[in-house]
């Protein structure tokens, strides 16, 4: 059962923080409107009251060198979850291959803080990766795939996911330097791309990332963190 269904309207109204007490911080990263009215956005405490552009700029200074890509030939509903996961694990960018339009509902507005790029086909995407020396790592439970649990992921890479149902297309498989599988133990044939993306991104995090910053502390050097 979804937790939101168990919350009253009064509870939902208390999500986030209310108006900032006076005197207001002078740091230009803070948004006067949010300071006055409160900040109900789904952001960690260290970004409370910050302007959208300031949050993106701060994230850009810390983004990881891995990218995430997903094929979108049939308006895959998993793309929003992939984007949200990419934001959570601070991927460099998300690449949508195929149709430009995608369902943003599952992203929960995190696409505003994440760089999302579009490629019309696999060939264009693959050329983009070659130019930037990014290895393409396919994620799919295909014959011949190597176990993700025992395979080191490159630091500079793109984790590529296929369309829900058919999985990686033949051109996508050809573009991949390597394909990794995710171990499963139940009766289902596969897990969806949204879940798989979170597992694969966290595998990269375990190998290459430092501990995350304190979600409640403001970035260093300002002295004017939210109260």
From TrEMBL:
Keywords: Methyltransferase, Transferase. The keyword Iron does not apply. The keyword Repeat does not apply. Pfam families: SpoU_methylase. Coiled coil: none annotated. Residues 207-227 are annotated as: Disordered. InterPro entries: Alpha/beta_knot_MTases, rRNA_Methyltransferase, SpoU_MeTrfase, tRNA_m1G_MTases_N. One of its GO terms (molecular function) is RNA methyltransferase activity. One of its GO terms (biological process) is methylation. Residues 66-202 form the tRNA/rRNA methyltransferase SpoU type domain. This is Unannotated protein.
């Amino acid at each position: 059962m979804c937790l939101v269904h168990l919350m009253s309207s009064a509870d939902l109204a208390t999500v986030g923080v209310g108006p900032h007490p006076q005197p207001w911080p002078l740091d230009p990263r803070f948004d006067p409107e949010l300071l006055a009215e409160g900040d109900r956005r789904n952001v960690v405490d260290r970004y409370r009251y910050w302007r959208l552009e300031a949050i993106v700029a701060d994230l850009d200074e810390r983004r990881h060198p891995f990218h995430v890509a997903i094929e979108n030939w049939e308006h895959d509903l998993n793309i929003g979850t992939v984007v949200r996961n990419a934001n959570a694990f601070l991927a460099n960018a998300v690449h949508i291959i195929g149709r430009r339009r995608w369902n943003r509902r599952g992203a929960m507005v995190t696409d505003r803080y994440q760089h999302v790029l579009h490629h019309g086909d696999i060939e264009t995407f693959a050329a983009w990766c070659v130019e930037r020396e990014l290895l393409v790592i396919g994620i799919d439970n295909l014959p011949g795939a190597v176990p993700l649990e025992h395979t080191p992921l490159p630091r500079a890479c793109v984790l590529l996911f296929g369309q829900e149902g058919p999985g990686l297309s033949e051109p996508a498989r050809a573009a991949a330097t390597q394909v990794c599988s995710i171990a499963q133990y139940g009766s289902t044939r596969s897990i969806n791309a949204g879940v798989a993306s979170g597992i694969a991104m966290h595998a990269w995090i375990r190998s290459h990332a430092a501990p995350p910053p304190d979600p409640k502390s403001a970035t260093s050097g300002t002295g004017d963190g939210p109260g």
